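protein under study:
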Amino acid sequence: MSATMRALICHAFGPIADLTLETVPLPEPGPGQVRIAVEAASLNFPDALIVQGLYQVRPPLPFSPGAELAGTITAVGEGVSAWQPGQRVMSFCGHGGFAEQAIVPAAQLLPLPEGMDMDTGAALLLTYGTALHALQDVGRLQRGETLLVLGAAGGVGLAAIEIARDLGARVIAAASSAERLALCRQHGAHELIDYHREDLRRQVDVLTGGQGVQMVLDPVGGALAEAALRATAWRGRYLVVGFAAGEIPKVALNLLLLKERQMLGVFWGDAVRRDPARHAHNMRQLAEAFAQGRIRPCVSERLPLEGARDAIARMAARQVLGKVVVRPQE
């Protein structure tokens, strides 16, 4: 009898409710690949998009969602010499994490840093990698500047708060409830704006003495984008990270002209592919910051594989705080 495993499977792009938990054959790694026993896989907003066919990348069907994971290597394919079974690793693999075992290209592996648990390893790469790349590589955030973070209680938002503080910036966190803002405060936000109760632009003016912020990090899009752009200072930078609100905003270009503002796109996944050396540098920077206690991923929930589909649905509805980790072995 051939070996099997459990996996959350997407057979066709469509409703999240169509995902099924199945028993499938245990995959074997091909050339340049490794197989990992997934001990933790974290949930990210792209997981909700990719299964619906709404993401810029469409994996071959069928597939398992789950863009990042941590676990132990169980087998290596032909040509893989740098990795061996038994090694503890983490990976941003794009998909495949919501399964008991996952096949990952060896080039996409990183060793799990000393002292880091599997849950943290699974929760670190995409959100902290995106935030660091956005703030440091794309936006060039400087010590003493003020950053406004939209959707600040989400995974990328909380990571951006911690990283911006680590880079010496002042952070204004904007979120939609007192509960979310309390979480932002716990992770180091200097100032808070509840944009369901307060006027975003007016509050930024109050908090900056009418000067505006030097940078906005926006993983949300939607109706707040224009107000946030107007809240930037002379030569302010607006980082476009994603569209969790479900709406891609349209921007009047005269807003850029009036204050010599800049709008900058952030596509971390493609940046990793195009500049692997920079990615490796950033990962070492994050590992050092974690080891020194300067960053700490917020794992808000831990679920068995049976809970993954519901968690993806809640992520799509923006009902998740911090990071949800799925533990397929439980």
The mean pLDDT is 94. The longest strand covers residues 33-42.
